[in-house]
Amino acid sequence: KRYFADISKGQSSIAPVAVVESSQKGERHVVVKYAGRQEVVQVAYHAPAITDGDAPAMAVLEKLLNVSYSGRLKAKLVLPKICMSASAAFEAKKDPGLFTITCSAVPGVGETQVLEAVDGTINQLRAQALADSEVRRARNQAEFAYVSEQDGPYKIAFNLGYFDTLTDWQAAHTWTERLRSVTASDLQRVTKRYLNPDNRVIGWLSASSQTKPSTTKPAPGGESPPVKEAPKAPHTRQAMGVSMTGYKADELLAVTVSAADDVQTNVPTTVVPSLPPAPKIGHEKAVLVETKRIHQRVLKNGVTVIVFESHLSPMVEVLGAVRAGDVFDPVGKKGMSALTAAYLNCGSAKRSRSQQTLLQEDWGLSPQAMLKFDSGRDVITFRTRCLARDLSNQLSVVAEVLATPVLQEADIDKAKQEVVAFIKHQEDTVPMRVHRAVLRKLLSSSCAYYPDDLIERVKSIMSLKISDVKSFHSQYVAPNATTVILAGDITVDEAMLMLESSVGAWPTKANHLRPTMQATSRRVFRTFIPTGASSEVAVCLGQLVDAQRNHPEYGQLLVADCAVSGHPMIARLKQHSEGETSLVDWRTRFESLGGALVWLLSSSMSAEEAPQAVSSILAEVKKLVKLGLRSDELSEIKRYLVGAIPVRTMGTLTAVCDGVLESHLQCGEADCLARTLSAVVSTSTESVNKIIRTTLKPDQATLVIAGSAKAIKSIREKVFTPQVSGN
């Protein structure tokens, strides 16, 4: 009412417009020729509107065909190597839409063979009764996919509005009930009714000289296609791939900001144009509302449990960490943590990897939501998500892998190949080489955080034995080194009961302290890395910062960082002088290293852009160091961060888990949000300018540039000559 009640109603209502198609009388074909090599066949059937009683069955039918590991399309088209990929899609629309099956043929396979396989799959659904287990799996898949789209209030609001445009907003709450009511007979009935040749159009993206695909008719006995007129409707959000994250939880905190008490520093006023005063909501003081939505407990065996309660949707995100990351690799056995994480993905003594996969698929989980272990610098992480009703079962899977992983000789070569492939694909890139070089210039070579040489790391991994993995697992993968974060539709009491049941019997082991970070005593401020003939240039500026998330200086660092690149309007790297081309997209981040932070400013660009980009970034940062922030700029940055930080850290269950884990690992606190916002709000111009002068000074930071010999020469000559020659 406050913002919209005074808006007058329109003078006249907009009359609905409906474009009515004539009913289809037979199968149609569309052929598009192009110069590529990939043959694509799409079969589109007329399908009911979302308000139709058949719509839930069509949505479940889509999942029955699509299930990633045991779906009909994979079994009938992909595994026989007829298609490289095949997928079905039901359009949820206000008006009748389409049910499509899209197939990318294997090279050498024509459209005739693809259509025969599609029709064979449909014929089987029409003629044979479906097993209850397959129907249950498809229903679970449909429900999980729908609930997954409602992660956070923003997405929930979008979903309510979306259903309101289709029928009414209440339908958003009843859709899962309609999905759960679908039976095997419903699926067979809609297959017969809608998936008929006379009710379809075949589209063929042809890379060959043929002009018309041939078809095979489904088995006789099917019903006639429904005589429904289908107006043309807009794209669905599923088809558009709409993904939205972020919100500010009003019940979580209330922060007021003003610059009334800022200490004025003697800085020029020509840095940027003056800003209008930021809205004053009250005195410069953070009024934090304690909601007790984040709880931290410890099981008897030492497992740390952190629970974030959010009952907006029946979903729970699970994120765990074991203090057994790369920094715990034994001397002479680099890559041990990474190989151990790969082994944990091989299953448990109770269930093999394939059995775990099929079990999770039965619960409705997509491949992206299934249990996955990864190795990091400090910890081995594991992540999954599931419907709240399946959480106890999923935690049992997590527990059996942690306590009793399958460690067999037959799996070691595969695990090694996975780890080495990841290193080559993710780590051996120009930006990652630059990142490692920055850390090597900042850290002591005797420090556990000092980056390994990739070639030596690969050699070490290939030399490891199954006995090494067993020894590392028995020593470091322990309950008292493990943290489990649960975020979503669960209470702390429910979480404790489930975890006590699943991991409570896991025996405690000896504690291992995390190594500390050691800075190098010999700083190298500028390094160039030749990368052969690569046209890409990567640049990274790095500086060690002695601060943690629960320190007041962290809020000042966030303000300073926002002044460099975070704020969309007044950040120095967002500004452009008159006539200057746009600056390259520079990004900043803080990286935790054994109780300290590294501030990184990085970007990738073409060789032609590099000299001006590097010169501009150094000049802008130097100008900020020299002139500092004005009080009006500081007030605006505070106002921005007070809204942006909760959006980034509380917008989805995934973001909550990531933020809580990072906070817990760095400073032992599960929730630093209130402390961080208080530190931001209490920052004065004097304190932030001091941080800027001491921390962001580019002449005292490590700069690493990687590119071709020609690009490096150009940067040296145009940016650094005659100041410094050589490295």
**Alpha plus pi helix count:** 23
Beta strand %: 15-25%
Q: Please compute the radius of gyration using only Cα atoms.
A: 29 Å
Sheet with the most strands: spatial strand order: 8-9-13-10-12-11
What value does the average pLDDT take?
Answer: 85
Task: Give a verbal description of the structure.
The N and C termini lie far apart (64 Å). This protein is an alpha+beta fold. Strand 11 and strand 12 (380-387) form a beta hairpin. The chain is globular, with a radius of gyration of 29 Å. Helix content is 40%, strand content 17%. It contains 23 helices and 18 strands. A six-stranded mixed beta sheet has the order 8-9-13-10-12-11, sandwiched between helices. Strands 1-5-2-4-3 form a five-stranded mixed beta sheet. The chain has a five-stranded mixed beta sheet with strand order 14-18-15-17-16, sandwiched between helices. Helix 11 packs parallel to helix 16 (492-503) and helix 17 packs across helix 22.
